[in-house]
Amino acid sequence: MVKIEKMSEKHIAQVAEIEESIFSVPWSQKAFKDSLELDNTAFYVAIEEEGVIGYCGVYKVMNSADITNVAVKKDKRKKGVAKQLLKEAIKDAKSEQIKEIMLEVRESNEAAIFLYKKIGFQSITKRKKYYKHPVEDAIIMLLKI
User: Catalytic pick from 104, 130, 131, 136?
Assistant: First the structure.
């Protein structure tokens, strides 16, 4: 059974390992540690018996928030883990009077785009050549809550 909780320093090594296995330009352990120390940033981890299997980061400014990253171990995908992480982040954002949440996603990441739309995010614009390694456009999505 998957348990969602707020990320703490004890989770950083496992989170960074997942990050490195998925993203072409991964965050370092130091980047995660530095982010955790900010008052306006929250990270959530999905945990099973073997440890962290996914995570989601949120950066909050006034009454809006940005999803900074969402990742799930490749062998744990298609089981609702990312959805659980996002739902927890959205629930907490609502409780803090956040009115909208934005994110960007690679245009080719159809599975993530499908999930975000299912949750209620809408595509609002595109950022040309936003991503590097490989160069790709980003779809900017918004959820009003």
Answer: 104
Indicate yes or no: pTM above 0.85: yes
Has 9 been annotated as catalytic?
no
Q: How far is CA 108 from the centre of its chain?
A: 17
Catalytic site includes residue 104: yes
Q: Which CATH class is domain 3-144?
A: alpha beta
Q: Which of 44, 55, 116, 131 is catalytic?
A: 116
Ramachandran class of 72: left when φ > 0, alpha when ψ lies in -120 to 50, beta otherwise:
beta
What would the pLDDT profile of 92-125 be if each residue is shown by its tens digit? 999 999 999 999 999 999 999 999 999 999 999 9
Question: Omega before 134 cis (within 30°)?
Answer: yes
